[in-house]
Amino acid sequence: MIKKLRLPLFVMAILTIMVFNHCTEDDLLTECAGCPSSSPWSVPGSTQCYQSFDDCDASERGDCTICD
Hints:
The chain contains three helices and two strands, in the order ααβαβ. The radius of gyration is 20 Å and the shape is rod-shaped. The chain has one domain (2-66). The chain has a two-stranded antiparallel sheet with strand order 1-2. Helix content is 47%, strand content 6%. Residues 22-29 have low confidence and may be disordered. By secondary structure, it is mostly helical.
């Protein structure tokens, strides 16, 4: 019984790994790059960090989030 389940379980494990490790360049542009706690505000895909939401919103014009 265990021998019959070995191949399907192996295939499912490989497919699961492929799904969770799939990362494209577009995925990277939708995430924050990471900012220091002294200037945590940024937008996904940007490398600029801002000290306040207002500074970020004035420069980036939308979608500002804390990215530290």
